Structure formats: C-alpha cells, structure tokens
Amino acid sequence: MGVRDEGTGAQLISDGSVVYAEALWDHVTMDDQELGFKAGDVIEVVDATNKEWWWGRILDSEGWFPASFVRLRVNQDEPMEEYVAKLEDSREEDSATMGRLLGPGLPCKEQMRANVINEIMSTERDYIKHLKDICEGYIKQCRKRTDMFNEEQLRTIFGNIDEIYRFQKKFLKGLEKRFNKEQPHLSEIGSCFLEHQTDFQIYSEYCNNHPNACLQLSKLMKVNKYVFFFEACRLLQKMIDISLDGFLLTPVQKICKYPLQLAELLKYTNPQHRDYKDVEAALNAMKNVARLINERKRRLENIDKIAQWQSSIEDWEGEDILSRSSDLIFSGEMTKISQPHAKSQQRMFFLFDHQMVYCKKDLLRRDILYYKGRMDMDQMEVVDVEDGKDKDLNVSVKNALKLRSPGGEEVHLLCAKKPEQKQRWLRAFADERGQVQHDRETGFAITDVQKKQAMLNACKSHPAGKPKAVTRPYYDFLLRQKHPSLPSTLPQQQVFMLAEPKRKTSNFWHNIGRLTPFKK
C-alpha cells in the first residue's frame, strides 16, 4: 500500500490548495453518501479532517470514502491531463513487459484473453462455494433452531440468497459448456450472459434488502449466544475466516463485478473473434442490470418519503398515492383554468408515475397544502396549446398546455408563468410516460407489504391528536444532504473490493427542495 499522510492532506486543503488522491483499490458502495470508484481513479479530496473517512469528488459525484483506499498524489501541481497521460503510458509499458515475460507461445492479446476467461471461471466457482456455504452452513442450521430464529428474521438476514444460489449453479453449468479447457482464449462465453440477462434481476431484491440484513444482524450480534452460534456454523462448514456479514456482502459485490470482468474481456477480444459481438452485447446487458438494480433501490428508498409527503397534505381524499405510484417525476406551480366559468386558480402540481395530484396553499400558512384533486395520467393526452384564445374554454391563454381524456369529457387547461417552465412540464409529461413504459418492460412493482409499511411509518411520524409537522421530514432530509454525517461503519478491507457502476442521479429531492411548502 502507498504511503499516506492525513495531516498533509488536511494541511494542503486548509491552505486552499486543490488536493488529488489516487485510488489504490476499488471502493464499492450501496450508500448514496459514499463515493464509489475503481483502482487508479483520481479523486479530488475536499475534506481530509477525519482520519478514516475523507470527502471527495469525481466529476459530478461527491461522497465519503475510506482514506486507507487512496494515496495522495506525489506532485499535487502536476496538471490532470499530464497525470492521465502518464497513467496510460505506464499501462502500455506494463502490457509490453507482460508480453516479454510470457515469451514464445500465444500472442500477448490472446494470452491475456485466456487469463481473463480463466479468472471469470475461477471466481464463478469460488462464488458458488460461498453461496453453498451460506445456504448449507448458515441457513440450514438456523432453521433447526426455532428457539433462536423465526422465518421472518431469516428472510430479513438472508433475503433471496437461496434463489440466487439456484440460479448461479445453472449459470455456471452454461459457462462450463462454453469454456474451452485446452484453449481458453477460444471460449465463447458472451452468449451465456445474454441468455440469462433477465435472470440476473433477482439480485435487485437482494441488494435492496441488504441494509435491512445488516441492521438485523448487528442487533443479534450484540447477544453472545448468536455470536457463538454463527461462529460454530462457520467452523462446522469449514468456511474461510470471514464473518457472516462479509459473506452476505459477496452477492452485492458480485453483480457489480460482472461489468468490470466483461469490459476486461472485451479489451482482449479481437473484433474478428466469434465471441466479440456477444461479449460487447453482454457488457451492455450487465451494465443495464446494475443500473436497474440501482434505480430500483432508489425507488424503494423514495416510497417512504412519498408516504410522508402524503401524510403532510390536509384533507386527503381517495386512495393512497402509493397504491399506483412510486416516483415523483416533477412538481411546481401552475394556473389551472376550469370549466364552466373559466375560473382560474393557482395550484401546486405533483406529477407522479400514473397520476398527477394538485393542491392549494393555505392563505396564511404557506407551508400547508390542501388536497384538491388528481388526474389519471394513464387516461390523459397532453396537448401543447398555442398562445391566444382557447376554443374549448373561450379564454385567452399564454404558456398553456392541456390535459384531455380521449373522449374529451375531461379537460384541464394549465398555464405556466414562463415559456421555459411550460417546456419543462411538457418534457416531464413525456418522462412520466417513458417511466411507466420502462416499468412495464422491466416488471418493476412495489409489493403491498412495502406500501403498507411505508404508510405505517408515515402515520407513526404524525401521531393522532397532534398537529402535523408538515416540513420536518423534508427539511431534516435536506439538511443532511448539505451537511452529510460520516458513515457509521469502517470499510471491511478483508472482503473483496469491487467497483460499482455509476449511479444515475435522481432529481426527486432537487425538485422537492425548490418547493415553497418544504422550506422552513
């Protein structure tokens, strides 16, 4: 490991210098407040006052990362372009050196491809052993001890890992069939990933549950009998010396590693190779799987916030917002012009997938909203209205758009303050339809249990008989975004460090933060 000096980093930053560090290892994260990166990435260090966790930036991503995973650049004044160029040169030199070391035999690229294939096969077999150890060494033993565990606890701790184990055995069989033992570089394994790309989506459930598993496990590990029991399970199964939480992290890391392995394989596959197109397609497919998992995680985290939002609205009527929706697409203020007398009303609009809710602000308390109605977006077409007189309502309009049911029996005329706001709304309506279509194609859905739990949590934050704290859940959340707290746990360096594909940023809180109701 490279030599670091925390004091130097903090000192340079306090002097106003821009400090860069180079990643020594991949840092995988499932936490929005942590910064994920790959070995060799260059990180701008923003805050190095804490010895163990630093705050850093890579392009437009910011977050905490373990200081032990990086080393400060030797020459901080070296321009970034020169640094990246040097890094590329050194990689080329490494490749040339490798070619000389390999000596006669296979050309360098083919040898490197054989190495990557062998690594994929080897890690896959190791992973199957990990899964088998968890299922047979832990779950089977836990089920025998009904005095210590109930099924709900086991489901929380282990998630759907048994389902993952069954799938991975089938996947490994497919890889073995396509693996050429005598000449590994000729193996054609890309098609195997493509064949099973939808099956990999079962990891979504596991990754979403993982934080709950860690929480449940940490509670149990405070009691000695559970500590002794889990250690006895490990010894009985003759597992390597990694704690149970380390074992449970491996599926999260595994699904993040596939795109890295396939990218490496593609790099050493000649475009003329029979496997080239399949590996290229497999890489994109596995990147999409990782993106989908991250997106589902974000959506599940948002349902609690949506439930809290609903519970803060006065005079709510009809079904819960979560009964049909799970994502806030856009929100803002517009003028609603209604039939029959072309009455105009200022309303706050919240566009979710499948529906749009509109509310009225309290005249005195501007932070209180009253429910006024909703529109079924599955039954509406959006019409761009030209400035001038509207034929339906016989009224002059500017920056207007119309929501109209196919039969024309329901018409809503909405006016934005500025042309750019109207364009933003038109894009938002297109995004909403795109989101609905995407969910349909990927089979995304929130379970009834998850909806019920979210509404229950929201009710707990607003006890009966007490006034509703309209802004607190949101205000507190926004405060945490501006002044993030340090991660409570230190990184587990004994577990494999793997990179996670870049998370798609969400505009959920960006939009919420700009709304008057949620400002203090």
From TrEMBL:
Q: Which InterPro entries match?
A: DBL_dom_sf (IPR035899), DH_dom (IPR000219), GDS_CDC24_CS (IPR001331), PH-like_dom_sf (IPR011993), PH_domain (IPR001849), SH3-like_dom_sf (IPR036028), SH3_domain (IPR001452), SOS1_NGEF_PH (IPR055251)
Stored CDD domains? PH_Collybistin_ASEF, RhoGEF, SH3_ASEF
Question: DH domain: which residues?
Answer: 112-296
All copies of domain PH, residue ranges: 327-434
Give the UniProt keywords, A-Z. Answer: Cytoplasm, Guanine-nucleotide releasing factor, SH3 domain
GO BP term, example: intracellular signal transduction
A Pfam family this protein belongs to?
SH3_1
Q: Report the superkingdom from the record.
A: Eukaryota
One Gene Ontology cellular component term attached to this UniProt record is: cytoplasm
* Gene3D superfamilies noted in UniProt: Dbl homology (DH) domain, Pleckstrin-homology domain (PH domain)/Phosphotyrosine-binding domain (PTB), SH3 Domains
Q: Molecular function terms in GO for this entry?
A: guanyl-nucleotide exchange factor activity
- Enumerate the spans annotated as SH3 domain: 16-75
Location in the cell? Cytoplasm
By what name is this protein known? Rho guanine nucleotide exchange factor 4
Organism, scientific name: Megalops atlanticus
